[in-house]
Specification:
heterodimer; A: alpha+beta; Flavocytochrome C3, Chain A, domain 1; Methane Monooxygenase Hydroxylase, Chain G, domain 1; 5-stranded antiparallel β-sheet; 17 helices; 19 strands; B: about 250 residues; Ubiquitin-like (UB roll); Fumarate Reductase Iron-sulfur Protein, Chain B, domain 2; 5-stranded mixed β-sheet; two-stranded antiparallel sheet; elongated; 2 iron, 2 sulfur cluster binding (chain B); electron transfer activity (chain B)
């Protein structure tokens, strides 16, 4: 289908991006101030894109719903950022990062995009260091690295357990500099509620000022969406409370295809659910799997005794522990990719070995005692003490662990009231990241000309499963090093266009549409809160479109969500007024879009009759419970076209994935 | 996790908007799980209020894992409440007793005007950052190799510790003078400690301090409440370092 032309340039994969970039059109510096660009979202992708385009001289308007661009949820990323620097001399290269990412994505990502990502990864680290991002260093003053899942080398750069914070504050400093220079106009506490198309091109947005409630029209020559993922469709996830799909979904409704919505990453190491009033789940960084060993008791009666509070994990003898990842995947051990680790945890808990005393008995241990011993001994030796006592070893080991993961351990203790230096952490998988998103071509342009999508909001680089420490890499790669080139190429056609008027009928139509939606909610006068519906939606999604899916459950989910959606519009009660700060109204507008998305996710999961990465269909597994891909029939990106309110009418388009440089194979981490 | 529930009384600041006068309102909330975070307790109260057709309480929050800096709240006379080294979203109800009355107010500072209920405007912090909280490097990615300049681990660690500031404003809210010195000094320190930031160090500190003064923050009188209440335990040493940087810049600017 011509419309799903991914526009991958010709040439050898290692030269594609360089050659392509060299031939893209440019906009001369004197023309750039005549051109307006809107960037929605100020996470790693948005802040870096806005800063770069502002620095080039375009007129940039940036929007975020938070009170400051520094709050975007990239800030919460913990473990690190990958880059093919090979500083550790353990055999890394651009090709290896490319290969690991394609394999980690279970051969469902586009080769050319992933290779480009690997190529620019090193520049990201250079750029961030130049901006004053304080990455962890070794005693010699050089940058330190650690390992992440799905790799057998150390290419992850980090800043304790708050790498995302440091990178985002770096990008925030870049955008702040441009705001100060007047090249970026920042709109805090604004939410995009529609995309405006003029003559088929994206030419602006409708945004709501969240303080005054005013509905505003903003025009531009291009619109860039960097609005993150849609994990909150599950209600409980590791996303921020405000993270939502609305901007991306409005673009979808205006014609942008939505790709692979069923690819959701369930992260293996999160703090288990504790109660019904819980509002979100908290991640414990994957980096902890460098040092922690995951286990459950070998004997069911031990698991039962632990749940009943009669046994403590420290009382279970070494030989009675089942380090199931080390047992099943000796080559990668605790550092298998996230989807594999999550399913393995679910398998043990479903079999009755879970250790958490919550409703679902779902939890496994992440134990640091071996690492405390090993590092304690190592530190003692390094300081010349070759005969350390047991106490010295433990003390030094704890200190080592604290330096690497201190903030995570503190966070765990505050939430659970348990000390992870003394007793193993309890963890369980939780919704974390969404690989699916708005379909984009090689230029990161959606099927709407002039509407670009970057970061988690697009679908492009992670296939069916994202490797740890790759999201930060992608966000900054898109914003700093891809969009400035491809957006300029697009804008080169607009140097004579002149300002886009917000008085055009298309703006009026979109504004009226938004206002109608708002007054519909405020006048609905139903009997149930927005959260009531959001929780019910999340329940359906988690049980039937979650870690394991099957045709029957998915079919049920589609009709259950349709019914819930109808009830939502009839029964939801939204208090307050339109012209004031009204968080309940904000939530209602977001949940309305999550309902439609949830249905589409279930449809996408139902059409994909295979298991791949985070998408696990119970019907398609081998004898050992591993995913069974069907490369003959499903080696494609599923991109959905919106066809109106009834999601059952949405139409599937396919972008076939061609693997020219990597031999497609069964993923093996054993 | 030994879960139990408590019943509490709440006195919460309600204010319609920036122009209206606010007051403390009283609420009663039962069956609060001690495993709930403080914000989950407020969610529960809001759910109750909406079901009673009353207006829910507006409060800022987002990541709920202590890192975005969006949540605030002055709880029982302390920024982010009685626990140490946590934001309000990481404060748990196990820190409160059954039957306790809890007072909840917004940040109080001239430079942080109230927008509604417990929500305040902290854009002054952004403007201080825009005045100089950066290294003037373009985003080409074509700088020097990241390992070209070794940085001693001790200095790098200090820079990192300063950089962990989340910009929540607890320091301002805790200070009797509503001073923003801890916040500003954290950014000044981070960049002054690193070779990449040293080139512009003098101009940076002058510009940021000037903007801080223009925003209406008070002076620092070294009482240290800011560092005690800071959820990220940003050290007072940063203020001392900023004062040195400022003096240095003043002397050489003359």
């Amino acid at each position: 289908m011509s419309i799903l032309d991914s526009k991958i340039p010709e040439g050898h994969i290692s030269k594609k991006w360089t050659d392509y970039k060299d031939h893209l059109r440019l906009v001369a510096p004197n023309n750039r101030p005549k051109i307006d660009v809107i960037v929605v979202g100020t996470g790693l992708a948005g802040a870096s894109a806005a800063a770069s385009l502002g620095e080039m001289g375009y007129n940039v308007k940036a929007f975020c719903f938070q009170d400051s661009p520094r709050r975007a949820h990239s800030i919460a990323a913990q473990g690190g950022i990958n880059a093919a620097k090979n500083y550790q001399n353990d055999g890394d290269s651009v090709y290896r990062l490319f290969y690991d990412t394609i394999k980690g994505g279970d051969y469902r990502a586009r080769e050319a995009n992933v290779h480009r990502l690997a190529e620019v990864s090193g520049n990201i680290i250079d750029q961030c260091v130049a901006q004053g991002v304080p990455f962890a260093r070794e005693y010699g003053g050089l940058l330190d690295n650690r390992s992440f899942g799905g790799t057998q080398l150390q290419r992850t750069f980090y800043a304790a357990g708050q790498t995302g914070q440091q990178l985002l504050l770096g990008a925030y400093s870049a955008i702040s500099r441009q705001i100060g220079l007047g090249r970026v106009q920042m709109y805090n506490r604004h939410e995009m509620l529609d995309l405006v198309k003029v003559d088929g091109k994206a030419r602006g947005i409708i945004a709501r000022n969240l303080i005054t409630g005013e509905i505003e029209r903003h025009s531009a020559h291009a619109v860039i969406l960097c609005t993150g993922g849609y994990g909150n469709v599950y209600f409980l996830s590791t996303n921020a409370m405000g993270s939502n799909v609305t901007a991306a979904w409005k673009a979808h409704k205006r014609g942008a295809y939505f790709a692979n919505p069923c690819y959701v990453q369930i992260h293996p190491t999160c703090i288990p659910v504790h109660g019904t009033n819980q509002s979100k789940l908290t991640l414990m960084s994957e980096s902890l799997r460098n040092s922690g060993r995951i286990w459950v008791p070998k004997k069911k009666e031990d698991a039962e005794a632990i749940r009943a509070g009669q046994l403590k994990p420290t009382q279970i003898a070494e030989e009675d522990r089942d380090y199931y990842l080390e047992r099943r995947y000796p080559a990668f051990g605790n550092l298998v990719p996230r989807d594999v680790a999550s399913r393995a945890a679910k398998e043990r808990c479903d079999a009755g070995y879970g250790i958490e005393a919550n409703d679902t008995m779902e939890g496994v241990y992440l134990d640091f005692s071996s690492e405390i011993q090993a590092k304690g001994k190592q530190t003692a030796y390094a300081s010349g003490n070759h005969n350390p006592s047991e106490e010295e070893i433990i003390q030094l080991g704890k200190k080592w662990v604290e330096e690497k993961y201190g903030n995570l351990f503190q966070m765990y203790e505050k939430i659970t009231d348990e000390n992870p230096y003394e007793t193993p952490m309890k963890i369980y998988p939780a919704v974390h990241y969404t690989m699916g998103g708005v379909w984009v071509d090689y230029n990161l342009q959606s099927t709407i000309p002039g509407c670009f999508v970057a970061g988690e909001a697009n679908f492009s680089d992670h296939g069916a499963n994202r490797l740890g420490a790759s999201a930060l890499m992608q966000g900054l790669a898109d914003g700093y090093f891809v969009l400035p080139y491809t957006v300029s190429d697009y804008l080169a056609g607009d140097i004579r266009t002149g300002k886009i008027s917000t008085d055009l009928p298309e703006f009026e139509e979109a504004e009226n549409h938004v206002k109608d939606m708002i007054s519909r909610f405020l006048n609905n006068n139903g009997s149930k809160t927005v959260d009531h519906f959001h929780k019910r939606l999340g329940h359906i999604m988690w049980n039937k479109v979650g870690m394991a899916r099957n045709a029957q459950g998915l079919t049920e989910a589609i009709s259950e969500i349709a019914a819930l959606r109808e009830e939502f519009y009839k029964e939801v009660y939204v208090p307050g007024d339109a012209n004031e700060l009204n968080p309940e109204l904000e939530k209602a507008l977001r949940v309305a879009d999550f309902m439609e998305l949830g249905q589409l996710m279930a449809r996408d999961a139902l059409q994909r009759n295979e298991s791949c990465g985070g998408h696990f269909r119970e019907e398609y597994q081998d004898a050992e419970g591993e995913t069974l891909r069907d490369d003959e029939n499903f080696n494609f990106v599923g991109a959905w076209e919106y066809k109106g309110m009834d999601i059952n009418q949405s139409e599937l388009h396919k972008e076939v994935l061609n693997y020219e440089y990597i031999k497609i194979a069964a993923r093996n981490y054993k | 996790m030994a879960s139990k529930t408590i019943n509490i009384n709440l006195k919460i600041w309600r204010q319609k908007n920036a122009n209206s006068k606010g007051s403390m309102e009283t609420y009663k909330l039962d069956n609060v799980s001690t495993d709930s975070s403080f914000l989950e307790m407020l969610d529960q109260l809001n759910e109750q209020l909406v079901n009673e057709r009353k207006e829910p309480i507006a409060f800022d929050h987002d990541c709920r894992e202590g890192i975005c800096g969006m949540c605030s709240l002055y709880i029982n006379g302390e920024a982010h409440g009685p626990d140490r080294a946590v934001t309000t979203c990481q404060l748990h109800m196990r820190k409160f007793k059954d039957g306790e009355t809890i007072y909840v107010e917004p940040w109080r500072a001239k430079a942080f005007p109230v927008i509604k209920d417990l929500v305040v405007d902290r854009s002054a912090f952004d403007r201080i950052q825009q005045a100089g909280g950066f290294v003037s490097v373009n985003t080409s990615g074509r700088t020097m190799d990241a390992n070209a300049i070794p940085i001693g681990k001790a200095e790098a660690d200090k820079a990192f510790e300063a950089a962990t500031c989340i910009g929540c404003g607890a320091c301002v809210a805790s200070c009797k003078n509503a001073s923003a010195m801890l916040f500003v000094s954290a950014k000044v320190s981070q960049l002054a400690l690193l070779p990449q930031g040293q080139v512009e160090a003098q101009q940076r500190v002058l510009n940021m301090v000037k903007q801080m003064d223009e925003e209406g923050f008070g002076n620092c009188t070294n009482t240290g409440a800011c560092a005690v209440e800071c959820p990220k335990e940003i050290s007072l040493e940063n203020i001392a370092r900023m004062n040195r940087e400022y003096l240095k810049a003043m002397v050489s600017a003359e």
